[in-house]
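As the next step, I selected for study a record pairing a protein sequence with its backbone structure tokens, which the following lines show:
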Amino acid sequence: MLSSVRARLTAWYVGALGVVLVASSVGIYILLAHSLDDRLDARLGSTIQAATAALKHTAFGQAEPAQTITHALEDLRFPNQTIAVLDAGGRVITQRTATGGPPLRLPPSPLDPSESIRFYELPESQPDSDDSCRGVFQRVTNASTASYAVVVMQSLEPLSDQLDLLLGFLYVVVPLSLGLAGLGGWLLARKSLAPVMVMAERAQRISVENLDQRLPVANPGDELGRLASTFNELLSRLSNSFAQQRQFMADASHELRTPLSVMRTAAGVMLQREDREKDEYREALTIVEQQGRRLTRIVEDMFVLARADAGHPALQRTEFYLDELLAETARAAAMLATQRNMQLQVPSFPEAPFRGDECLLRQMTWNLLDNAIKYTPEGGCIRIALESRDKEYVISVSDTGPGILPEVQLHIFERFYRADQARARAETINGGGAGLGLPIGRWIAEVHHGRLELQRSDETGSTFVVFLPHA
């Protein structure tokens, strides 16, 4: 029954209001009862003080005590009360009952030795007799040294009637208030949670095919509006991620399909005729070997990117010297540069102890040098440098190529992105890359808490810089 948020909110609201109303009602009842009791005791105390004062100054003389006492009490005004005077033996000498006063009911010990005022209360003598009362008594000695007891009492029925009226009123008002509060809380919760129901229905209709849809935002300033906005931002990130995954799959399929098509074509041409020369077979196998090497590199790069997408790559951290790694990679790249009539400048590196994944950092360095050699025309110059600063190492790779257009620089770190499609096709035929070198290099730098940036690129060439922290 309380499975919905609306029902739970209403139940909590009604429960909290019920506790407050009940506690308030009990407090009001108790305070009113104490107030009525205090007022009754004050009236009883005032009456008995006046009666005892009158008796203390009364001299009996030759008159009957009952007549003298009755005469002394004639001037007193005590509405709704009954006054009685008892002698030392506990017998009633005289009594006066005002209009509305209760019948006389004596306390258990009216002639208490103490002369202090004593209150007493008597319940109903019989069920439904309505004779409950509250009284006060005090022993007094008059001018003739006679000892008497004065008793003043008043009925409790008017007080009980007032409390019963209040109790009946609370019995009606509290449940009615709770009912109205429950109904109002239910309607208010329904209206407040209506946007949540709309968002839930809209979210159920969103799938991979329509990630462009968004949840409605009724009020961006309240909590539900912020929830909808946050969910819409999540949908935007998911949509971008799915779009990147689709683009990645499409680009990967294209990159893998091209070398496979070249290999199949070369093999098919060779198989069309049986009388092929040895050089023709050799040339076909060379093409197959080049495309196989390209496929291997693409698959290895995709494996590295899969580790990056997993979010928690398992790095093989070891202690090594970064300067030695750069020197070894530069020597390997120098052979490739020599084949293309280029100059690779390798100045002396400062000693650079480092802790990280040596294989990944070697791959990152090779990717930067390979790109520099690939996009630098023959006769150009390539330079690699290492600098040690206060808290980081700076590796820079510069070339004298044609540079990268400003509108292209924003996309060079995207997977499979290459601006020159004609050159991309030529590289595919010749076993070149697939546009994954720079994205992999940036990821390798980031998992080592560093960064890879394009520092400059113009008509004089380009410079890529890697920043790696010492620790």
In short: Residues 5-56 form the longest helix (52 residues). The domain at 315-469 is CATH 3.30.565.10 (Heat Shock Protein 90). The chain has three domains: 5-162, 226-313, 315-469. The chain has a mean pLDDT of 82.
